Every structure is written in C-alpha cells, then in structure tokens.
## 1
Amino acid sequence: MKMIKNIVFLFAFLLIFYGCEKMFLESDPQNTSANNFEIFWKDFNRYYAQFIIRNINWDSVYTKYRPLVSSSSEQQLYSVFSKIVSGINDMHVDLHTPLGDVNWKSKAPDSYPSGRLINAGKYIQFGLSQNSIIEYRTCLNSSIGYIIIPTFSGGTDGLSLTDDRYLVIDEILSKWKDKKGIIIDLRWNHGGNSNNAETVASRFADKLRVYSQYREKTGPGKQDFSQWKNSTIEPKGTHQFLKSVVILTSRSTASSAEMFVMAMQVFPHVTIVGDTTGGGVGAPIYRELPNGWTYRLSTRYYADAQQQVMEGVGISPDVPVLTTVADSLKGIDRILEKGIEVITTSK
C-alpha cells in the first residue's frame, strides 16, 4: 500500500515538474514576418467587432495578403499592414512601428470650417483663461452660456477613472442656474475617456435613461458576439441643468465625444445642432507583435438608444447646419448662430 502511495506521489510530482518546465521554458513566439502576420490576422479575427458593419471579408484579406509576406522583410510587412489598416477605415484601428505609423484618415477635409469656432468675439464675451479642461463663457446674449470641451481625455489610469478636472461642471452650473440655456461646443473633440463624458452629461440628466447599446466580440467566429448591453445615464452631482441645451457637432466629433452626444440626445431639453459626427466608438484595445510593433482594434460596435448602429455612420444632428468656407471667410459661424437661435426661441 505504501509503495502504491509512493508511485502516485512520484507520478503527480512528475506531472507538476514537467508542466512547470514547459511553462517556464516555452519559447516566445517567433519574430518572423510570416509569424507576425499570422498573429496580427488572428488577433483581428478573434477581437475585431466591425467587419460586417464595414463590409470587410477578413478571410479574403488573408488570401490576398498572406502570400505577399516573406520571412525576412519588415519593410514588406509594413507595406502589407499599412494597406490592411487603411482599408478597414476605422478611427480606432491604427498601427505604430519604427518604420512609421498608419492612422485613420478623417472624413473631414482640411478646409472644413464646420469643425471649429469662427470669429469668437462676434458671439462670445471675452475673459481670462480659466486654466481648466472645460472653458466656459457667456454669449453676447448674456442669458446663454457657452462651454467648450476640446477633449474628454484624462483620468488616473488614462482610461477607466474619471478625471476630477471635469467636476468643474458643478461650479459652472451653480453660477448659471438662471441662464435661459447653455451651448456645449464639441466640434473638435476627438474623444478620450468615456467616464469623463458621462460625468459631464449626468449633470444634464432628468432621470435614469438608457442612452446607448453595444455588442462585444467574444470569439473568432463571425457570429461570436455578446447579447446587446445597455449604457445608462442618470442625474449626478450637485446641480442639474434641465432648461434648453444645445450641443454643437461636426465630422470631427468622435469616439467618447460621440458617447456624450448619444447620452445628451436622450434628454428632452437637448438639441443637437451642426454636422453628423465622425462615426466611431469601438472600445479599442492595444495589441503587440513579437517584433514590438503595436496596433489598436475595436472590440465592440455601438448603437444609440433605439439600436441604430452609429459605427462608420455617425450621429445625425436634430438641426443639420454647415458652416461653409465662404461663411468662415466672412467671419460667420453658421453652426453657433443656429445654436444661439434655438435657445433664444425656446420656451
């Protein structure tokens, strides 16, 4: 009986030993162009959520580009990856290498005046810089407040925790409780941390509401997705502003800024004015190849509260307005003018 116990013990020990040996001695993935391509393709196959939305056949991408990758040329691999990344046309898909970066090309042309504030002094009272991540002024019509939020970036870990600088919104709303309305300008906000976006939006919430829905990629199969999940917004902070609010948007309004727009548009006292937003939230993750190159990919696709998918499309404004090049040369901010008009004529 003792001999049997010893044999069992020895057998268990050998299993543990060889298991640990394999764990510690298993080699890193080979750093070859061919292997880097395989890892890259499989990562997207497993995690990327928007192939169907963006009309991309990922198997065909493999068939087309895998034969072009040799085992020795990183320049060739970079050229292949550049074509693939550019073809996906997703603002949250990019590649970073010593040979160069490949990024999404904005749908907004260089001569796109709808994406910026024009001739501010014609519409807004000047004042000292507030040294805040949120700038706020009073319009020349002193019953209307004007807030610029150029980014939602920031947080203790850069991603999941709210940046306390955005809590200045409570101070602003305390000062502006008697305003007839507020304009929030997001026309050049490319996003950042969605927690910061929700922090600001919650100060305009009338009650708990579902403001967006999303599905997440859960496996390599084409239909491997989670069920729809809800994102909600509710009143938080010391003050809620429930009078007329206008959000100014453009094609440059993107990512977490679009989360903010989706949250705000479910409130009955909010009007979206301007151009359609950029069309990308995605919840991206970073991945790294054996050669040290890094890339991002979108793990989810988002829809609004009515389950209208906004990825690759954007969020349509309630009141569509464009500022033309001719307008900008004349010092006219057509989008801001319409926002002021919406509040001025509100009841």
## 2
Amino acid sequence: MTRAHPHPLERILESRIAILDGAMGTTIRAYGMTEAQMRGQRFKDAKKDLLNNGDLFNLTQPAMIGDIHRRFLEAGADIIETNTFGATSIAQSEFFVDDPREHGGRKAPEFYQKIVEDEFLNGLAWEINEQAARLAREQADRVSEETGRQRFVAGSIGPLTVSLSNSPDPDDAGFRVVTFDQVKAAYARQVRALIAGGVDLLLVETIFDSLNAKAALAAIREVFDEDGLSAGGRELPVMISAAVGRGGETMISAQTIEAFWIAFEHTRPLSVGLNCSLGPDLMYPFLAELAEKADVAISCYPNAGLPNPLSQTGFDLGPADMARYLREFAQAGLINIAGGCCGNTPEHIAAIAQALDGLPPRRFGAAAEPLALESEWKA
C-alpha cells in the first residue's frame, strides 16, 4: 500500500519500539458483564445469546469500551485497536441468523450471498465499526493532548468465521461455503466504516487463512482506489499479522513463514508480524525467521502463554513474564512493534512498555543487520 507522504507512525518506528495494546476480550471479562448488560434495550429481544459477541459492547456499553482504551493508553500504548475483531456482516450473522444446518441445510455461497446483502447486518456492521473507531479516537486524542505524545488508532480486521482455503465437506474437496467476492464485500464495508470513524491505520490480524487475508487486502485496495484515497495521498498504513501453529504454519492455510511473507510482500505493508496462537517462548523461532525474511517493520503481540482456566486472566503468564520475553525479543533485534494478545491486560502492557523503554528498534530495509541466532538468544 503506497503513500505519498510518510505516516507519523513510520517515523516513530525508525527511532523506537512502538507499543501496541493488549487483549480487549480478556479485559472485558474482568468487568463481569452479564447477558442483560450486553443486550441493553436495543438487543433485549435477540433470539441467540450475545454475551460472546464482544463487538456489540461498542453499542450497548460504550463507556466500558472507552475506559478500556483509556487504560491501555495510560499503560503506555502508542497504538490501540478498535473493538471490531468480528465486526463484519459475515461474522455478525453467527449471532443473528439461524444456522441452516440446524434445519437439514448447509452453509453455502447462496446462504452467504443473502448475508452480505442483508440490510440489517450491513447496517449493524457499519454502526459497530464507525462507533468503535470513534470511541478509540476520542480516547487516543485525549491522552495525546494530555501527554504530548501522539497516539494512534488501528482498525482491527479479524479473520472471519469461515475459510476460503479449506472445504468443510470431506467428500467434496472443492466445496467452499463462501466466495472470495463475498468475503471481500464484507471486508470493504468494514474498512469504509472504520475510515469514517477516524482510524489512523488498518490492521489485518490473526491471519489463520491467507486467502481470507488476501480478500481483506483486496477490499482495502478497492476502497482506497474507489474512494479516491490513492490520488489524494491519504491512503492509510496497513499492518498484517498472522497466527501460527507450533510448526510455524499459518493455521488453516498451512503456509510457512517464508511463504506467508512472499504471498503478501507485494502489498508493502507498514509492518508484518505474528500474534495470538502461541506464547512468546513458542513464537520466538518463527518471529526470528520472519524478521530475517521481511524488509518492513516487524510486530509481535503473543498470547500471555498457553490457556489456563485456573489463571485470573485465563492464561499462564503475568505482566513480569511477558515483559521479560518481549525485552529479550527487542535485545535480539527482532521487533519494531510490541504488545499482547489473549490474556494481556493493561497491567501486562504497562510492564512491556517499561521493559522496552530505551531499547532500539529492529533495523529493517537497507539498514538491516544480521539477527541474533536462537542459540544466542537462549544462551
């Protein structure tokens, strides 16, 4: 994604490691919200449970979402993500549309064509994204003014609940429940609403299916071109971040780290990185490989270890643990942007920000230097 003029965040990445926020879902759970509080008056008659639809809190509990953004910013985050991980018509349909499989049917392109054309779902998706962006924008601007340090809002674009790469039917390997154009259409609406709400950049994150991510990036390109953003030089920077398995593959699409970067290098993102899926210790070798291959900024926001239902946050690692791992990543010259995914609270981000304060960012592009070997990092 080309831009006529460097974005302010690009200049920051040349001088220091930028801090990304933590887990919205983890932090929401600490507020103890009930199903009734999720629904509010507006969704009180919804037929399905909505408590796990965290994006709706932008509409029913905006004060809570704003408070979470404020806490992450005060913890030291330079970049906060909008609460829009599942804010597309396709993802929202899981909560508002009957599953045809419950009535002897199946999910198929015909079903999803109705979804992407549905007036209610399209309106809801737009409202969630625009409102989420405005909530984040308000807090980012307030803290920027109070501290004299510019903060940024990243529009979070999640991976969807459907896959373009894999068939759910073992007897029909060529079958897909949804088409590329349908996914692109859903993403394009999300992108336009995030831009309308005032985001500074777009973050295609937790990529487990590279073809889904390609549809998201194609939607972004389409919006930039059709809405005149390209000619005006107002294209927003784009960050991309993949979720990887224990073997370093991008989950459903099973691309290696190198193959993943090659598939997306042409989009020239502001940054490429890894998030979710693994704790920082398991993520290290794959992050090191990505940092060696890519010539753009590297982001890293791992889970706080592995899931642990007995832990207060649902994950093993506390703030001090995450701070230690991310500091070691920085000392190895691996990262330009650091934060936390599942299990990372504002307290985790505060510890990470403090641990990385004063450490130089990874050098990339023409200025890149050889990276530390994993054996050196572990020594």
